[in-house]
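Handout, page 2. Input:
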Amino acid sequence: MVARPRPTLREADLYAPVKAYLEAQGYVVKAEIGDCDLLARRGAEPPLVVELKLTFSLALVMQGTARQTLFDDVYLAVPVSSDRGWKLRYGDILRLCRRLGLGLLAVNVARATVEAHLDPGPYAPRRNAGRAGRLLREFERRVGDPNTGGVTGQAKMTAYRQDALRCAHFLGRQGPTRAAILARGTGVARAANLMRADHYGWFERTARGIYALTPKGLAALADHAPMLADLGCEDRDICPPEG
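Output:
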């Protein structure tokens, strides 16, 4: 038995389920009123607009925001999708719609059902003060602008990595050193925790509270030699060995 090809979905196929969904809630629904795919009213309540598209896209968002210049309540309607991309982007889609005050309807054409994922409404973003503070601290602590915006797939030069380089440079010149002395000599207050955590594999503990540089750490110094000058490492005095 030869399987029949699945019929191509059209935007018009979304209309009947959405119309029935709204009529069940007491709305009078009419299509193609001016530029609106669907306009609905319930008694004396403000009008409601629905824009139909086969995928969630920038074009659909632009249509929705254009309708907001006419009416407050605007929904975007798209088919229910099993596509992995939709699932991965679902949270971002909701955040975008919420930020713009747009509603979101998911239409199951096969079952002629509609699910409201989000209703239109004013948006007041909740500030993440903790994360914003961390970003500003990173901005202030990072020396220079060592990264290129938009580049992916390579390690970023963060303020933490710069502190690790300061510690590595100190050990490279001084040899195994007690963490407290290294912290004073480099100005890196978190030196002990940084070397204990050893996220980059640059440090090893040779005795209690004393750290040395690993071969990987030596290689990092060579790889980041220009950065060391920017960090002022060559100008910093090295503390004399303990004892």
